[in-house]
Write a structure and sequence with these properties.
This protein is mainly beta and 110 residues long. It has one helix spanning 33-36; strands at 16-18, 21-23, 30-31, 43-44, 50-51, 57-59, 63-64, 71-72, 77-78, 82-83, 90-94, 98-102, 107-109. The strands form 5 sheets. The protein has a 3-stranded antiparallel β-sheet with strand order 1-2-3. The chain has a 3-stranded antiparallel β-sheet with strand order 9-6-13, with no helix packed on it. The longest helix has 4 residues, at 33-36. Residues 4-32 form the Protein YjdM N-terminal domain. Residues 44-110 form the Protein YjdM C-terminal domain. InterPro entries: YjdM, YjdM_C, YjdM_N. This is Alkylphosphonate utilization operon protein PhnA.
């Protein structure tokens, strides 16, 4: 039996095959062998600069916090961002607000 590939997302060795998909039980990532060769998605800020995990960014406009009366002000610095797939493609922690999801179009790289 051939060895199964490690998870491309979390590098776990505990992967298993489910039909034509490979599944990681630790992070729930599913992929095919063909998708491993695809290029990773590139995330860009409002100025067109490429963003990477761990970058520091600043917010370029006041953003209302959904479900709260709070507002994230222009110039708020966000350190150590994490890029994720989805509509809001930045996961981060902001001092005074906690865990947040932001869109890359509303930030600029420092």
């Amino acid at each position: 039996m051939p060895a199964l590939p490690n998870c491309p997302k979390c590098t776990s060795t505990y992967t298993y095959e489910d039909g034509n998909l490979f599944v990681c039980p630790e992070c729930a990532h599913e992929w095919t062998l063909e998708s491993e060769t695809e290029e990773e998605q590139v995330f860009k800020d409002a100025n067109g600069n490429t963003l990477h995990d761990g970058d520091t960014v600043t917010i370029i406009k006041d953003l209302k916090v959904k479900g709260s009366s709070s507002v994230l002000k222009i110039g708020t610095k966000v350190k150590n961002i994490r890029l994720v797939d989805g509509d809001h493609n930045i996961d981060c922690k902001i001092d005074g607000f906690g865990a947040m999801k932001l869109k890359s179009e509303f930030v600029k790289k420092v």
